Amino acid sequence: MSLFDSNMILAIIGTAIVGGFIGLDRTAAGQFMISQPIVAGPLTGWMLGDPTAGIVIGAVLELIWVVDMPVGAFVPANSTISTVSATAIAALGSHGVAPLPVIGFSLLLTTAMVPMTMMADNVVRKMNSRQADATAIFSREDEGRTLARAHLSGLALFYLKSFVLCLVFLPIGITAVALFSRLPENFHRAMSLFVKLLPLLGAALIVRKLSMKMIDLFLLTGFMIAAVLGQIFHVPAFIVILLTIMGGWLGARYSGLRR
Q1: Do residues 78 and 23 lie in contact, with contact meaning Cβ atoms separated by under 8 Å?
Q2: How distant is the alpha carbon of residue 163 from its chain centre?
Q3: What is the rounded distance in angstroms from the CA atom of residue 215 to the CA atom of residue 34?
Q4: Given CB 3.0 to 4.6 Å as the disulfide criterion, which of 26, 169, 170, 228 pairs with 35?
C-alpha cells in the first residue's frame, strides 16, 4: 500500500486549505481565537477523524506558547501552523486514531517547524510593509482603491503563507511518522513519557515568562497546601478547591492591606 495514495493527497491538500483559513485568524483577519492551539488542534483532529490527538496536541502547545503573543514588532513562533500540522501528521500518519507515541513524535516535530514559521512570518510582514509604503505615492483619488487592493493582497499573502507551510510540513511529517513506527519499542515508550511530561514543561515556561513577582505568593501557598492535603491525606476534591480559593483570597486581602 502506497504511503501517499489519492485519499492521503486529498486529505493533505484539504488540511492545507483549512489551515490557511485558520492561520488568517491569527493576526490578519477576524481574530476570533480559532487560531489558538486549544481550538485549532481539536478542530483539525475532528476534521480528520481523530479529535483526541487534536485535544492533546492543542492543549500542550497552548501551554507552551500561550504567553508569546504577536504584538507589535515581536514575531513569535506560529503555534497555529505547528498545531494544525502536528495534529494532521499524527492523524494521517496513523491512518486512524493516533497512539500516544505518535502524538509525542508529532509534537517533537513542531520544534523543527518553529524556525520556518518565524522566517515565513517575517517575510510576509516585510512584503506587506512594502505594500503600505507603495500606497503613499498614489493620488488621493486612487488612494481608496489602492488601499483596498493592498488589504486584499495582504490577506492573500497571509493565507498563502499558512497554506504553503502546511503543504510542506505534512508530507515530510507523515513520512517521518512512517519511519518512526519502525523503530524499536523503547523509542515508543520514551515518546509516551515525553507527552506525559510536556504539560509540566508548559507550566514551568508560563511561570518563568510571567516571573515569580507576578504570581501571588499566598495563592501558591494555598495551592500547595491543597495539593498536599489532596495527595497525601486524600481530602475530598471539593475541600481541596475551597482551600485553594481561600488561600488566594487571603493572599489578595493581605496584599491589599499592605498597600
Answers
A1: yes
A2: 16
A3: 28
A4: 26
pTM over 0.85: no
What residue type is assigned to position 251 of the chain? G
What count of residues does the chain have? 259
174-233 pLDDT, tens per residue? 999 999 988 888 888 888 887 877 776 666 666 666 554 545 555 566 666 666 666 666
DSSP per residue, 200-256: HHHHHHHHHHH-GGGS-HHHHHHHHHHHHHHHTS---HHHHHHHHHHHHHHHHHHHH
Instruction: Note whether 121 and 161 are within 8 A (CB).
Output: yes
Rounded Cα distance between 135 and 130, Å, is: 9
For the chain, which residues make up each domain, given as ranges?
Answer: 6-210, 216-259
- d(CA 83, CA 36) in angstroms, rounded, equals 9
Radius of gyration of the chain (CA): 22
